[in-house]
Amino acid sequence: xxxxxxxxxxxxxxxxxxxxxxxxxxxxxxxxxxxxxxxxxxxxxxxxxxxxxxxxxxxxxxxxxxxxxxxxxxxxxxxxxxxxxxxxxxxxxxxxxxxxxxxxxxxxxxxxxxxxxxxxxxxxxxxxxxxxxxxxxxxxxxxxxxxxxxxxxxxxxxxxxxxxx
Length: 165
Prior knowledge:
Elements: E1 7-11, H1 18-29, E2 32-35, H2 36-43, H3 51-74, E3 79-84, H4 88-100, E4 105-112, H5 114-127, H6 137-144, E5 158-163
Parallel strand pairs: 1-3, 1-4, 2-3, 4-5
């Protein structure tokens, strides 16, 4: 078997800049980008109306993508997943995907203050009015309550990117 690709995934609160970072990273590093927002929008148009709807469809998408991502890694291409890896359990999923095919992984932790996240969410509501329904301070608080900062004990190879307010 040839060289394996690396699985890159992102940790960061809502509004931290995960999509912007992953898009730039994919372009500059010549890696395959898989965007959760794009897939969910196309697979489930008008079906995600609240956080619970998102969670159900998010897990369905992960189930479908795992073997696909593993095939890409085994073919020698690297992948960046623009999905939130914001809990210990979610990061375990990414590790399991990489480890199942013995591929290396790298977690990119966008360490951004709540204030900066909220500022970026506010800006995004203006730039992408179709997201205004979800990009609210209330949704930020709902989603943020589940955020778990990564721990060394998780065994994740973490690259921290800090952005000040």
